[in-house]
Amino acid sequence: MEASVHRRNFLSLGAMGVGGLVIPSMFAGKVIAAEDLVSSLDVRIKKALADAAMTAATQVGASYCDVRVGRYLRQFVITREASVQNIVNTESTGVGVRVIADGAWGFAATNVMTNDAVAEAARQAVIIAKANAKALTAPVQLAPVTGVGEVTWRTPIVKNAMEVPIGEKVELLMGVNAAATGAGASFVQSMLFLVNEQKYFASTDGSYIDQDVHRIWPSLNVTVVDQATGKFRNREGLSSPMGLGFEYLDGAASGKTTLPNGVVVYGNSYDMKEDAMAAAHQARAKLSAPSVQPNKYDLVLDPSHTWLTIHESVGHPLELDRVLGYEANYAGTSFATMDKLRDGFQYGSDQVNLIADKVQPGSLGAVAYDDEGVGTKKWDLVRDGKLVGYQAIRDQAHIEGKAASDGCCYADSWSSVQFQRMANVSLEAGKAPLSVADMIADVEDGIYIVGDGSFSIDQQRYNAQFGGQLFYEIKNGAITHQIEDVAYQIRTPEFWNACSAICDERDYRLGGSFFDGKGQPSQVSAVSHGSSTARFDGINVINTARSLG
């Protein structure tokens, strides 16, 4: 397995937690020269490998076969203050073969890129399937897919990040660190994490799909220390991992939004140096900010924060495999059971519309086809507050009563078997014109939260607690000052039913993670979650600094 992150820890990898500890083990593969990051396999070679696997599988009894030829490229550029800590380029290439034989799944993989080797892997997959069939209670039932022939798709990037010289990337990060230090930072770490997945899929349904997926994540973490007291505070960057090229770092004015508290947040363009300087000032302000008084407050949540709450309290509990108990042994189940779907469960207020989306431009999950060759789409999970659907793949669709897969089946490597993964799950923007300032003007006693922080959620995704990066008191319709030590506690349906207002599409932005962990053995997946600023009334807030002893 190429990547493994325990789901409880996936967000602890934020900012620079990945820098020193996780990266070497997370994306194993051979180290390559930077210039090799811009090469690719000839599509004719990939098709020949796929045909060899499918022919071998069907000859020994497979009723279905799909083949994934994958080349996974990563680049990490990691810095701290005035030094470069590491530059790593990795490649992992191989072929995974999945089959159905005697009604059961089988899977095998190889990193030997010859027709004979992949044919042998296919035969091994059939042997495994036939062994699995002996323990079957019911045969695999696949939702139909029409083969699409030979097609290609590429993330619509402007600037391939892999083509940008290392020197330019180092210069960028050194400038970011210097800017943060000049603004008062005691310590600063910054990183570029770049991904190119060259994924070829073929199946006995008649598809040969060649996809070139690009993702980027610039991150930073600024720490300010009070030398007199030894007290310190930090602020992580307000960037998001994105399905974009290096153009994301252009810092275009069109990608910036200045919030009513003066904080600048970012959409499809990120000014890393500007954010680093702001982080230093805001971390300094945290040192003298008063601690929150525990109480019930109306929360105004920025999209840079809300994405995580959506991920944990909507994305995971509405994965059908989790609902069905397939994840129970390791990751838990879901409170949103299928009887709730039948009964039209009130998941949220009538303003709440939550959608799954695999086609949104710029999102981490945007692709044309999933790892079962199913064309991607957008669909409803919660409409007008009521639960209306889950996220299902080919062998689950019939259980939900769907005629087709939702197109959300993925593997994190050629060596891992594909399974049901979360789509981009997002909160739709409000329909009526509403700015953030207008929303705040209507809040008497509240807290404005920007950026994601710590979180905890139970195994049924019902009880949860969330922190953040920046907190501001709201009194009588106005932001008063920065506060600290805030976390709020929720029960999922109560929280979403407390949603009283959502800003319009002008405020819509994406957040997300490269490291959504799931499965046993664990795999990671990249996923985005969009929203506009939203208000939630009467939410319980605790003080995280309070001593209970």
What does this structure look like?
Helices cover 21% and strands 34% of the residues. With 549 residues, it is an alpha+beta fold. Strands 11, 18, 19, 20, 21, 22, 23, 24 and 27 form a nine-stranded mixed beta sheet that branches. Strands 1, 2, 3, 4, 5, 6, 7 and 8 form an eight-stranded mixed beta sheet that branches. β2 and β3 form a beta hairpin. It is globular. The chain starts with 16 loop residues before the first helix and ends in a 6-residue tail after the last strand.
Brief descriptors of the model:
9-stranded mixed beta sheet, 8-stranded mixed beta sheet, alpha+beta, globular, 549 residues
Q: What's the helical proportion of residues?
A: 10-25%
The helix-and-strand class reads: alpha+beta
Categorize the overall geometry: globular
Low-confidence stretches: 1-26
What is the gist of this entry?
21% of the residues lie in helices and 34% in strands. It is α+β, with helices and mostly antiparallel strands.
